[in-house]
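Narrative of accomplishments. A recurring question from our advisory board has been how the design workflow behaves on a single, concrete structure rather than in aggregate. To address it, we present the structure tokens for one chain from the evaluation set, followed by the sequence designed for it. No filtering or post-editing was applied between the two.
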């Protein structure tokens, strides 16, 4: 099997919304104190949605277009958002848990305000206790594991929670701090770019329910043996503009021919993927139905200055997961035993 190069072959600029020139009133939408996102969650989300209505028109227009039409990369990069005052003094949380030193919620507000224009924020009970705003940082001992706390191994391409009945339509990554060496790239590959590299025969196979996917490590599949009982097609929707179910690490084919098609897709992704080095104040929106994502390897130092992102998940329709949520809560409690 060919190895995937660490540097993409086709670097290209994605669609960028530059927020670096916000006026004072707009900055205040993000900076002015409000409800506590961890204690008064629903109030916080409503407050953020109302604030987002007052964001400049060009930001709302870009988010609306991305929500409705997406784009060929399946990502939208919002650059130069406000950050928490004094953030540079706060250490990266060593266990990728909530930071007790972070007592302002500007980053959470960025995620909730931007997310509110794409849909509704949700979380999963198995991940970070169901926090809506999840800290991603390198954690000692997981350097070579396929999880968000890994570092020294490339995080393989995946759609977020392929195995789950209620996966997010969008994934948001907000960068609070890049890695020391500015090495870490968030990698992404869209089905729009990969599809033309696949033969008709391989596309036919990928459109059929011939694929099985495992349960994520973070959902309790520690020994990597737990398989989802769902048999899925990898491609679905419109033949010329399909959606993509894919997990490089966890997906297997049920027939030798289907395996060949999956390998062809893996190779296509290796050719078309691109990478972005996120910087402080960058918020990356990923269309989780069209684009798989991963991360290059990087070297953590565990000195309180390591790479620190916050992540949120967005669904278009809260009603779909209502059966697995408690009233008034955003935490999806589907079990996988
Ligand atoms: Fe992910």
């Amino acid at each position: 099997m060919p190895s995937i190069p660490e540097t993409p072959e086709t670097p290209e600029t994605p669609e960028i919304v530059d927020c670096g020139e916000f006026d004072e009133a707009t900055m205040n939408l993000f900076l002015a104190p409000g409800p506590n996102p961890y204690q008064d969650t629903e109030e916080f989300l409503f407050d953020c949605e109302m604030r987002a209505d007052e964001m400049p028109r060009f930001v709302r227009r870009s988010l609306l277009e991305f929500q409705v039409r997406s784009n060929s990369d399946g990502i939208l990069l919002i650059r130069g958002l406000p950050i928490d005052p004094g953030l540079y003094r706060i250490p990266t949380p060593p266990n990728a848990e909530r930071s007790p030193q972070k007592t302002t919620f500007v980053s959470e507000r960025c995620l909730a305000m931007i997310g509110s224009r794409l849909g509704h924020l949700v979380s999963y009970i198995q991940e970070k206790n169901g926090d809506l705003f999840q800290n991603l940082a390198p954690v000692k001992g997981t350097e070579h594991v396929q999880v968000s706390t890994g570092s020294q191994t490339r995080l393989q391409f995946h759609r977020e929670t392929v195995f789950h009945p209620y996966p997010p339509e969008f994934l948001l990554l907000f960068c609070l701090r890049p890695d020391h060496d500015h090495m870490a790239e968030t990698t992404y590959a869209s089905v729009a770019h990969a599809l033309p590299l696949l033969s008709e025969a391989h596309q036919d196979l990928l459109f059929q329910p011939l694929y099985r996917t495992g349960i994520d490590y973070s959902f309790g599949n520690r020994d990597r043996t737990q398989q989802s009982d769902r048999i899925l097609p990898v491609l679905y929707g419109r033949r010329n503009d399909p959606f993509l179910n894919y997990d490089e690490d966890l997906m297997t084919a049920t027939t030798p021919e289907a395996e060949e098609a999956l390998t062809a897709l893996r190779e296509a992704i290796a050719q078309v993927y691109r990478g972005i080095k996120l910087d402080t104040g960058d918020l990356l929106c990923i269309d989780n139905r069209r684009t798989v994502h991963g991360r290059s390897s990087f070297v953590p130092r565990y000195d309180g200055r390591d790479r620190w992102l916050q992540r949120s998940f967005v669904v278009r329709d809260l009603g779909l997961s209502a059966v697995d949520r408690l009233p008034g809560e955003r935490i999806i409690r589907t079990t996988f035993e």
